[in-house]
Amino acid sequence: MLALIGGALGFVLAWGVGEALNEQIRATIPRADEIELDYRIAGACFLATLAAGLLAGIGLALRASAGPTLTGLIGARGNGGGGRGLPGAALVATEIALALTLLIGGGLLLRSFRAVVDRDLGFKTEHVATGEVALIGAEYDSPDRSAS
């Protein structure tokens, strides 16, 4: 349940941040209104979240069903081990390192995005109309013929 709640919150956060950024950059970046959340990717992320939650749950269920271990008995007597041991501590340290790496990477990505959006383009973009013409037909079959 915790993995599903986290995945749902991540989806809502991604959707909200995407909409907010889209509103902010729509006036400055061409075709920004075409940027949208890809639901195929969101579905794949949901499946990955579900798989991670199930694998973690199955691992904990197998560990709990194995019964007391020697490490658990020593920790239960007040030795301070807590029954976790080295593998548990390594897992926690790895999770913290990955979380910090993701946070730092996300912060750098947002800072770079802000620098791109705030950059002076060297020309005024207000009151400018753009257009696109699709040249279709046999007389426009090569780039040289299309340019003339």
Polypeptide structure, described:
The structure is a single chain. With 148 residues, this protein is an all-alpha fold. The protein has two domains: 1-67, no CATH class; 84-148, no CATH class. It has helices at residues 2-25, 39-65, 70-79, 85-118, 143-147. The longest helix is centred in the last third of the chain and has 34 residues, at 85-118. The radius of gyration is 26 Å and the shape is elongated.
End-to-end gap: 63 Å
Taking all Cα atoms into account, the compactness measure Rg is 26 Å
* H and E string: HHHHH
Separate helix tally: 5
Could you say which structural class the secondary elements and strand pairing correspond to?
A: mainly alpha
Keywords:
148 residues, mainly alpha, 2 domains, 5 helices
Quick summary:
The chain has 148 residues and is mainly α.
